[in-house]
Design a protein that fits this description.
The structure is a homodimer. Chain A is 27% helix and 20% strand. By secondary structure, chain A is an alpha/beta fold. In chain A, helix 2 runs antiparallel to helix 3 and helix 5 packs parallel to helix 7. The longest helix of chain A has 20 residues. The termini of chain A are far apart. In chain A, a hairpin with a 2-residue loop joins strand 7 and strand 8. Chain A folds into two domains: 55 residues; 229 residues, Protocatechuate 3,4-Dioxygenase, subunit A (Sandwich). In chain A, strands 1, 4, 10, 11 and 12 form a five-stranded mixed sheet that branches. Chain A has eight helices and twelve strands. At the A-B interface, helix 1, helix 2, helix 3, helix 4 and helix 5 of A face helix 1, helix 2, helix 3, helix 4 and helix 5 of B. Chains A, B: Its cofactor is Fe(3+).
Chain lengths: 313, 313
């Protein structure tokens, strides 16, 4: 007996009405409940998508070619598959689902935003007050960023918090995209002391296009969409006993602030760069405080089953 | 104004109720109607999938890693992305949608089945009556396959039909998977003359596992599913003025005939290998006729917008 149902069944409906259930039923008894749930739902959505849109073999193959091409382009310097998800808003959505922290109310931790494909592990450890800028002197608006990392519930400073920061150069490229920049330029890690304070020099970032020489670019072009992100700085905050925070802050005056190609902007993460007097090393000041939640407190704000940030801890 | 809606909106629903529409709305006016339809539906299904299952960042990342890995493994000898689709039944479904030919009624063309990831272009041109077996003498059940290619409507023979055939070796491997086999072993192309008849020697195929050393294998394992396909022979038929047919025929007595790992079996494609007397070159006989439809006739049986088989013509 074939799996695909009888001729009578197939003729009674536009497409074989038993096929999707047959594929779902192939799952064996030893699959975990979560794996079973995620794949059953995936099969249902994939098949519904194909039927609702009467997806042809050629169209499916074209999509498949893009996915394979994205995988081939991906390595430790570039994650094209992630970029594909990002232009469809999927990373922002799973970030919202996982953390489910209701943005910017006073008594809540710092909101999260997507990791993006340009984070690198092992960014250099820096001394407090150092600059993360190297090899591009004289370019960009120099900025003095500083603030305090506090416990969102008690308001007390968090000691030993590691702030991992990265942003693009004035040419719109991250260092791993740009052979002209020194290794690990515009990246650094800073560890807070007892006062929870941090400070460092960086640049005021600029808007930039996400890489559009691969499948993501092809899709943006087909969708008549621009590839730009508003100016932003990326952070991962980790501290002993605290839930890691993956976030970005956005320059209020940046172009594309209401039109991010990867849909990551949240109102609570929009900041103001202020003209800075009296420091020969910086034209702008950026004060910003981070609020972290202990794992225990974070649980009250997260959905059931939320797990740690992949690769960030 | 950020894209992600206000705090009030977010609190009124479990997740931001405006987010999916914001992503869909980013599509520009120059996108074609079909691209707009396919991506709007894709965004809606992706987001619904994430929300319905409360997909976490870790789970999304795990899926993404599998997709990138599949792309990296794919080249002209292996298409792991296609294999991923196949184990979820997607290729069989788009095949059904594209061709929508109601299987085995007498007055209809030969049913289609998935191309699978092992077809190679430029299989050797053979003379009618040749064998496609080389370098593995003495292994496998030798089979004499023959039949006629006819026009499904008129019943007349089709001249100049090219039958492109491929199947696995007795060890369950296609030649491009197996350094021990001669290049293009168990592949060949045969062109019919005026009588529309074809004949060649091959082997009676065996069930085999799809490759499970990559992402598809990991998923099958997590789903507690076996990786086996029932014994089958692949064909692509092309002929001037006729719609190409991509299909497979399946051995009725094969294990897994009701339980194909990629869900490709259709009743009308199940065949009987018969013991063959009087030919020292074959232990089995396999008579099989193919019925092709002209492009004009095929239109009446296909969904609107169905296109040619990608890469097969």
């Amino acid at each position: 007996m074939a799996q695909n149902g009888t001729i009578e069944d197939a003729k009674a409906h536009k497409f074989n009405p038993h096929f999707t259930q047959a594929v779902i039923n192939a799952t064996g008894p030893k699959a975990t409940p979560r794996v079973r749930q995620l794949t059953t739902s995936l099969i249902q959505h994939l098949h519904d998508y194909a039927r609702e849109n009467e997806l042809t073999v050629d169209e499916w193959m074209a999509g498949l070619d893009l996915l394979n091409e994205a995988g081939r382009m991906s390595d430790d310097r570039r994650n094209e598959g992630q970029l594909l998800c990002d232009i469809f808003g999927l990373e922002t959505l799973v970030d919202e689902i996982t953390y489910k922290l209701a943005s910017d109310a006073q008594d809540e931790p710092t909101a999260t935003a997507i990791l993006g494909p340009f984070w690198r592990k092992d960014a250099p450890q820096k001394a407090m007050g150092d600059t993360i800028v190297s090899g591009i002197e004289g370019k960009g608006d120099r900025t003095y960023m500083h603030g305090t990392v506090t416990d969102f519930r008690t308001g007390k400073p968090v000691e030993g918090a590691v702030l991992d920061v990265w942003h693009t150069a004035p040419n719109g490229l991250y260092e791993q995209q740009d052979p002209g920049q020194p290794e690990m330029n515009l990246r650094g890690r800073f560890t807070t002391g007892k006062d929870g304070k941090y400070r460092f020099y960086c640049l005021r970032p600029v808007p930039y296009p996400i890489p559009y020489d691969g499948p993501a670019g092809k899709i943006l072009q087909a969708l008549d969409r621009h590839p730009y992100r508003p100016a932003h700085i990326h952070f991962i905050l980790t501290a002993p006993g605290y839930k890691p925070i993956v976030t970005q802050i956005f320059d209020r005056n940046s172009k594309y602030i209401g039109d991010d190609a990867v849909f990551a902007v949240k109102e609570s993460l929009i900041v103001d760069f202020k003209p800075f007097e009296g420091d020969p090393n910086a034209e702008f000041e950026l004060p910003y405080d981070f609020k972290m939640a202990t794992f225990e407190d974070a649980k009250k704000h997260s959905v059931a089953g939320a797990t740690e940030v992949s690769g960030a801890v």
